[in-house]
Amino acid sequence: MINEKITVRITETGKTMEVVLFSRRAEVIEVVIGEGTHSMKCALTPTRNGFAYAGSIMGREIVYERSRDQVKADVEKLNPHVRGPRAR
Is the pTM of this model over 0.90? Predict the structure, then answer.
């Protein structure tokens, strides 16, 4: 199994780190930080302006610096059969 990784920035220090992508949707991105029994899951939600995704793990904020539109395009590119909600 090949794990997809994304790069996030730790806002406190400004350093970047790679985390394993658990799930990706336009509404929320879930990532796994750490390995084995010490791993933790974190949900990244879009910021108010929609230019990044932010979340908090163990009191530290992490930011994925891609816009909501870019993530939506990535999801559609990886799985073109997934469509949005149907109109009633």
Answer: no
